[in-house]
Amino acid sequence: MQRRPVTEAERDEVRRRHAVGETRNEIARALSRSASTVSRIASDKGLRFEGGHARTGSHHRAAA
Q1: Rounded to a whole number, what is the largest CA-CA distance in the chain?
Q2: How high is the pLDDT of residue 50?
Q3: Angle at the Cα of 63 (from 15 to 24), degrees rounded to 5?
Q4: What is the pLDDT of residue 2?
Q5: Which of 7, 19, 35, 37 is deepest in the core (most CB within 10 A)?
Q6: Going residue by residue through the chain (64 aa), what tens digit of pLDDT does each one get?
Q7: Helix, strand or coil, per DSSP, at residue 5
């Protein structure tokens, strides 16, 4: 079974949904894609999902 190519529109949608705090699984369901595909797209764009929350790769924790 061949995978369907990821479109630029889907990449943009992952970025947009990540920016508003949607989880990887929420984005995957919305795009009818697997969670691993969403993770791969996010990684390509420098985005990460941690602990159920979306974060950018450059996010730093505030000092306690």
Answers
A1: 50
A2: 81
A3: 25
A4: 72
A5: 37
A6: 678 899 999 999 999 999 999 999 999 999 999 999 999 999 999 999 886 555 555 444 444 4
A7: coil
51 secondary structure, DSSP code: T
CA gap 51, 32 in Å, rounded: 22
Assign residue 60 a region (left: φ > 0; alpha: ψ between -120 and 50; beta: otherwise).
Answer: beta
What lies within 8 Å, CB to CB, of 20 at 6+ separation is none
Q: Are 27 and 14 in contact (CB under 8 A)?
A: yes
In residues, how long is the chain?
64
Are 31 and 14 in contact, with CB atoms under 8 Å apart?
yes
Dihedral sign (CA 37, 10, 16, 43):
positive
Specify the pLDDT at position 56. 52
Residues forming beta bridges with residue 54, ordered by sequence position: 49
